[in-house]
Write the structure tokens for this entry.
Amino acid sequence: MSALDQILVGAAVAVSPAAHRAARREQWLADVRDAQELDLSPTALAFGALTTALFHRRAGHRSTWGEPMTAAPLHGPTPPHTIRTVPVLVAVAVVSLIASGAWLVLQPNYGYASTLDVWLGTVGTWTLVLFIPGAAVAIAALALRTGALRRRLGASMIVAAAVGGAVQPLLTPPTDLPVGVLPLVLALAGWLVAVHSPRWTWALLALPVVAFGLEWSGFLFTVVPVRWNPFVVAVPTLAVVLAGVIASRFSTAAPVVVEPRTRALVDKSV
């Protein structure tokens, strides 16, 4: 069980009714710990535990984030009121990238008033363009139905890309080479590894490369209205997300089939 899974389960227990915390802690930790024996993603189950705690406080209200935490087979149609983990996390990444354009609009046009303002502007941009999307997509990779090794390797590559995108301008000397494209390629490669897509989908690596080239050369700034120019900065990263979504449609991972169990993986009695 990873530290992330423990944090998610701990948060789920913390927001559960006090009378059910002990039982839920024991049950959820056991379910997440044993998830790999059922070829399930522990992170997806941990997210399911959290949303169970958030939304299943009344018997008449049912909603689950992640795979349904019940004995039902996972290869059937999506049950009602189910919120898929991966699409929600990808949506978080997209919203963050769009918000980065709004953040840049708020920045001063004629220089910052102090060094603190410079750092606030820079860190805010990093957070919206790199850190939030990187964290969301890395967690999404961990929640996929592919093998554990693929999920972990892919998520690690995505995290490395997000961190590398932030530190690369600080550690490398000024250059006219488009080195900023490397984190984008690494992030998409990590997703392709995690999602277990066919070989031809690796050609999608060209999509963020082309998008970065159009942004880096200044071409996009000439064809986009001036008031929308701040949003152009996020276009290469949005291209990574788009390519990842396309690749996911062709994942070669075997569908997960879970035999019915005598009890639910998550207690929904409250």
Observations:
- Residues 58-83, 255-270 have pLDDT under 50 and may be disordered.
- Residues 115-142 form the longest helix (28 residues).
